[in-house]
Specification:
Low-confidence stretches: 134-138
Radius of gyration: 22 Å
Largest sheet: none
Mean pLDDT: 80
Number of strands: 0
Number of helices: 13
Keywords: Membrane, Transmembrane, Transmembrane helix
Oligomer: single chain
Strand content: under 5%
Shape: elongated
Length: 371
């Protein structure tokens, strides 16, 4: 589990699992008499409400940790990402339940709910494996050439940032490529800041609850990125994402090259090579190598969680694809944009901590502070 917060996380995950269990109960009672089915519906709504209450407490705790003076904020970042993923998972259950019950005006179809619950089980296993602590070698035992060990560890970290980010970005670009020109992300986020639920008067109760949790996921990502700088973040995202995509399409080269350019990898490599020509303290190099290994593992874990987010977001998009009001589908497109924003700026943060979210000491900072 996420280090330091196992008790808080386990309690929160139990609430999320209770929503899935309530969805499974509804599926089991779907073709039973109306009274029994209504019992399952009421139980699902209560479970979602309890989850929402627990989620508010959990998120507030995580953000208080992020805003504290603690040096290690990685567990809180990962814990916040888990809350975003859980919100979308719960939204999946509620929206699928609403559709299965005919809240969209279509014929009732329990198969929609069954398929959604099956996919959520697979995604849950993915996340549990991701949250399990990696078997990390956080010490540098070979100190015969600490300079070359540092070079190797920094290179592995930089390559990992690029590879993991490219994997996630590819799946996001696949979804955005059909919608990039038709959506003004700034306008959408402004609309989401207002009460979007009032715009969905024809949506049933369960679907409305689901959309509310998608909005909570939005708000958590915005808060994680820094709401005060949201305008500049959006501008940077649109420009950087467009440049990444244009470079990728025009050159035909792997997406990793465009990602490395966006992260500023070559600049960090150049500074590292120059720094390693200096007379450096051996212990400083050993400590730096240990820190680089932690960076690599933490970034990998974050991107695995974001990868899970892309999967469950795609699942929601399938549920909403045929909804006549485009507002709900635009919410999902906007969520993809925020996930891409997170990947880009988090990668910059891990690479250099200059111009990113600045929640970690990136490779560039570690290089610059070698003594």
């Amino acid at each position: 589990m996420v280090a330091f917060y196992e008790d808080e996380l386990n309690q929160y995950l139990e609430r999320a699992e209770s929503v899935v269990q309530a969805g499974q109960q509804l599926q089991a009672l779907f073709n039973e008499p109306e009274e029994m089915r209504q019992f399952a519906i009421d139980n699902l709504e209560r479970a979602a409400q309890d989850y929402g209450n627990e989620g508010t407490t959990y998120r507030n705790f995580m953000f208080s940790e992020l805003e504290s003076e603690k040096a290690d904020k990685e567990p809180a970042v990962q814990g916040t990402l888990v809350s975003v993923l859980n919100d979308i998972q719960v939204a999946n259950v509620l929206i699928a339940s609403g559709q299965a019950l005919g809240e969209t005006g279509e014929v009732q179809d329990p198969e929609i709910l069954r398929q959604t619950l099956r996919q959520l089980e697979e995604t849950t296993q993915h996340i549990k494996q991701t949250l399990a602590n990696f078997a990390e070698d956080s010490s540098t035992s070979d100190n015969r050439n600490t300079r070359e060990i540092f070079r190797k560890d920094s290179e592995e970290a930089l390559n990992t940032f690029v590879d993991e980010a490219a994997n996630v970005a590819t799946s996001i670009f696949d979804e955005l490529s059909r919608n990039t020109d038709r959506l003004n992300i700034g306008d959408l986020l402004t609309r989401l800041a207002s009460d979007i639920l009032n715009q969905l008067s024809e949506v049933g109760r369960l679907i409305k609850q689901g959309v509310q949790f998608i909005k909570e996921a939005f708000n958590s990502l915005l808060r994680l990125l820094g709401e005060a700088n949201l305008g500049s973040f959006i501008d940077n995202l649109k420009n950087t994402a467009k440049e990444i995509w244009d470079k990728f399409k025009e050159s035909g080269s792997p997406l990793e090259q465009s990602i490395a350019w966006a992260f500023g990898v070559e600049d960090v490599r150049s500074r590292r090579d120059e720094k390693l020509l200096q007379n450096l303290n051996e212990q400083s190099l050993i400590d730096g190598s240990n820190e680089l290994k932690e960076l690599k593992n933490n970034f990998t874990k974050e991107m695995k969680i974001v990868g899970g987010l892309v999967i469950v977001t795609f699942s929601v998009s399938l549920l909403l694809h045929f909804w006549p009001d485009p507002t709900l589908l635009q919410v999902i497109i906007g969520l993809y944009w925020l996930l891409l924003l997170f990947v880009i700026f988090r990668g910059i943060d891990y690479t250099d901590s200059r111009g990113g979210i600045s929640l970690v000491r990136g490779v560039g900072i570690i290089v610059d502070t070698l003594t």
